[in-house]
Design a protein that fits this description.
Distance between the termini: 65 Å
Mean pLDDT: 84
Number of helices: 4
Largest sheet: none
Order of helices and strands: HHHH
Radius of gyration: 22 Å
Structural class: mainly alpha
Helix content: over 70%
Strand content: under 5%
Number of strands: 0
Shape: flat
């Protein structure tokens, strides 16, 4: 079975990237509410340095959230498109099974493993300090 040709076309890649961008913003808007975050900061007596509490804080949080979401969506789009681009450029079909989900899982596991190793190394240092 061969992969359909449309998956290597520029239209496919463009639509894929637009959908990733759209759903990134959609998900961020569902998960993080700048107005609620601003109110929670105000209730805790905390503030963002240089930003007045209230509406200015929520507007600032929304601007930062939009920038971070755009950056994350671009990165996610690159991760999603790289296997297709490599396959198109080289003609090597080895990357067919290595989709965006697989790459994200691999990166997540690698980061978690690195954190666990770092925690273990730090705990060994503290054990050495306690024994002395």
């Amino acid at each position: 079975l061969s992969q359909p040709q449309w998956s290597n076309s520029l239209v496919y890649v463009a639509v894929y990237l637009v959908l990733i961008l759209f759903f990134s913003y959609f998900y961020a808007s569902l998960i993080i509410n700048p107005v609620d975050m601003s109110q929670n900061l105000k209730k805790m007596g905390a503030s963002i340095p240089g930003i007045r509490p209230g509406r200015a804080t929520s507007e600032y949080i929304e601007r930062v959230l939009n920038r971070l979401t755009l950056l994350g969506a671009i990165f996610l789009g690159l991760v999603a498109v790289v296997p297709t681009a490599v396959e198109s450029a080289t003609g090597v079909t080895t990357f067919r099974g290595l989709g965006a989900t697989s790459l994200l899982i691999l990166v997540g596991v690698a980061i978690d493993t690195a954190k666990q190793i770092q925690t273990y190394v730090i705990s060994q240092r503290y054990e050495g300090m306690v024994k002395q």
